[in-house]
Specification:
The chain contains 16 helices and no strands. It is mostly helical. The chain has a single domain, classed as Formate dehydrogenase/DMSO reductase domain (Formate dehydrogenase/DMSO reductase fold).
């Protein structure tokens, strides 16, 4: 007679309470944080209403600087979304078990970032209702279509990766959490899809998870490579480069590693998870950040050495503007404060402790966003055809309050999505679906009964 196995893996009470406590208990600090994010979102919503009502004239974007901080945000969000593939695929497939407590954090960040990237690109459109024309009248020759396809694919794979890794823990929440609202119980019951750690379920989950972990790698490389092609296929100074693909990918991995360090520090402190996110994790992530930063530094040298050596025409004007012109303070802050100094400091072990590396990662993240700004704006202000007989506003780009409000709102959405997902689900994996010796025996019994 076939028996239905309905037992979870051994559940340690203390571990479960520590990792599920933030789901059951809602503190005043959490409510204030949500209220703060919603306030920023409301202000951004009003700014976007004005943009819809009056058009893109409320922004500082004009015929020459037609891409502003919206596109900078888009590239930045796409960049940090690669942290999901970095932690959950590269390190997992290479059997780095130390990264296991960080996989779910990275997958949550990846999903939140790619959703915000998709939304901000629609915000950049003067007529967002025409986005559907991109789908209904698609032209495969257009790099924009390539971006739409690859972003959609990456979002679906990232959602599946997160959901499959959560499945055993969702079932645990369904079975163990009683002092929670009714809607949460229904949510866990629905999402658990009758998971009971059955041997056949475990085998299938392992197979699908491994396939997705392998599949997401080329998609992750493709998403930022395709994003770089949006620039490389446009004839502008600073963009006409075959280096942009690896340049964007390496920069994305560096920014993603900094974001995961920044996030894991905050989670470690506010959710009191010092036993699970230890100093060893910061030590190893610090070394990884140094490696990724060195790779990105190499591509930075490649990106600027050639044009700076030749200093020809508009390319020379563009380089001069970055090195010694009005964008020089921002450029050198990015290179020194966001890249070179973090590499030097993180070589020394004391700077790989939680608090120092948290501060360093903050500078890396700030440098990464400013770098995306420098990629977009200065190039557009130095077209190959000279700017003549235009309004003064065409010659400069200073974002309006509407642009800043929408930008801050996009970051608030990013943080809100991450906060809500962390509140709903265990942020550190509690149960790991695996085939122990007893489960293997049971699986063989089922196979024999079936035959």
């Amino acid at each position: 007679m076939r028996k239905v196995i309905n037992k979870q893996q051994t559940y340690r009470t203390k571990r479960g309470k520590a990792l599920l406590g933030h789901i059951v208990n809602t503190s005043l600090k959490y409510k204030l944080w949500i209220a703060f994010l919603l306030l920023i979102i409301v202000i951004g919503g009003y700014a976007y209403y004005r943009q819809l009502k009056f058009g893109l004239i409320v922004t500082a974007m004009r015929d020459y600087t037609s891409w502003g901080i919206y596109i900078s945000n888009f590239v930045f969000f796409v960049a940090i979304s690669l942290v999901g593939s970095l932690i959950s695929s590269v390190l997992k497939l290479s059997k780095n078990e130390w990264s296991r407590p960080l996989t779910r954090i990275s997958e949550i960040i990846a999903i939140a970032a790619i959703i915000c990237a998709a939304v901000i690109i629609i915000v950049d459109m003067g007529r967002p209702d025409r986005f559907f024309y991109v789908i209904t009248h698609l032209r495969i020759q257009s790099p924009i279509i390539w971006d739409v396809i690859i972003i959609s694919t990456y979002l679906v794979i990232s959602l599946l990766l997160l959901y499959l890794s959560l499945l055993p823990d969702i079932a645990l929440c369904r079975d163990r959490l009683t002092a929670i609202p009714k809607w949460k119980k229904m949510l866990y019951r629905f999402m658990a899809i009758n998971w009971n750690n059955h041997p056949k379920q475990v085998v299938m989950l392992q197979k699908v998870s491994r396939i997705l972990a392998i599949t997401v790698l080329p998609v992750a490389f493709a998403i930022h490579t395709v994003t770089s092609w949006l620039f490389a296929t446009t004839w502008r100074p600073g963009w006409d480069s075959t280096n942009l693909g690896p340049y964007f990918v390496s920069g994305a991995f560096m920014a993603g590693a900094a974001v995961i360090i920044f996030t894991m520090y905050l989670i470690r402190i506010h959710l009191k998870l010092k036993k699970y996110i230890t100093e060893i994790h910061f030590e190893k992530m610090g070394k990884l950040l140094v490696l990724l930063s060195l790779i990105y530094l190499y591509f930075n040298i490649n990106e600027y050495l050639g044009p700076a050596f030749k200093m020809v025409g508009v390319e020379g004007e563009h380089i001069t503007e970055l090195f010694t012109g009005k964008y020089a303070p921002m450029y050198w802050f990015v290179q020194i404060g966001g890249l070179i100094l973090p590499i030097i400091l993180l070589i020394f072990r004391p700077f790989r402790k939680p608090l120092p590396i948290f501060i360093i990662s903050l500078f890396v993240i700030l440098g990464a966003w400013l770098k995306r700004f420098l990629i977009v704006i200065p190039s557009l202000q130095h077209p190959y055809l000279p700017i003549q007989g235009v309004d003064e506003s065409y010659l400069h780009y200073i974002p309006t309050w509407e642009e800043w409000a929408i930008t801050m709102s996009s970051f608030a959405w990013l943080l809100l999505i991450i906060t809500v997902l962390i509140k709903l689900f265990p942020v550190i994996p509690i149960l790991k679906a695996k085939l122990d010796s007893e489960t293997i025996v049971k699986l063989n019994i089922f196979k024999n009964e079936k035959s």
